[in-house]
Amino acid sequence: MADTNQGTETRKPLWMQRRFWLAGGAILAGLVVLAALAPRASAYRAMAGCGFGSARHAFGGQMLKDPQAAKQHVGMAVEFALRGVDASEDQKHKARQITDRLIDQLAPEIQKHRDFHQALARELAKPEIDRAALERLRQQEIALADAASKQAVTAIADLGEVLTPEQRSELVAFAHRFHGEGAGH
Asked: Quick one: pLDDT band at residue 171, thresholds 50, 70, 90?
């Protein structure tokens, strides 16, 4: 029997294509970067000295030391992700502008977050606990977290507008599969 598919190319489903998984990894890296940029209003993290602003352990320290390197790092992750959804050069350029702007906006916020950790440590080292001072610090940190979160969500929305609905759907579908959503989560 003659092969009826001669001369035609069968296309693998998207989830079986190598570029899909590579893009997914880049997207995950980009999401991790965005998560690292948004300060957490968590008492545990504040007490432990963790979070995005810790110079030894997080991306925030890199942003303070070398904002250009941070922009390059985030830009490469986003560009890699956009290659996975066949983004145009114009889309990649616009995305890079958005991520660069986000780094510029969040760098001062990271310093404020670090200052919070230092102020909290100073307050807790005093002989008497000043609950009012701790509450003021907590409120300042919550306001800082809220502002950074708004900036991050704005950047995510801006990045979403750069993509077509189909490209966004591909990225969202991957994120759902990667995080196991739909499987009881």
From this structure: confident
Q: How many residues belong to the chain?
A: 185
CB 42 within 8 A of CB 49: no
pLDDT at 90: 93
Per-residue pLDDT, 44: 32
The one-letter code for the residue type at 53 is G
- Contact (CB, 8 A) for 60 and 52: yes
Q: For residue range 40-51, list pLDDT tens digits in order.
A: 333 333 333 334
pLDDT of residue 128: 95
Task: Please name which of 115, 111, 179, 120 lies closest in space to residue 148, comparing C-alpha atoms.
Answer: 111
* pLDDT one-digit tens code per residue, 53-74: 444 444 455 555 678 888 888 8
Non-local CB neighbours of 40 within 8 Å, separated by 6+ positions: 51, 52, 145
DSSP secondary structure letters along the chain:
---TTTT------GGGSHHHHHHHHHHHHHHHHHHHHSPP--HHHHHHT-STT-TTTSHHHHHHH-HHHHHHHHHHHHHHHHHTTT--HHHHHHHHHHHHHHHHHHHHHHHHHHHHHHHHHHHHHSSS--HHHHHHHHHHHHHHHHHHHHHHHHHHHHHHHHS-HHHHHHHHHHHHHHTTTTS--
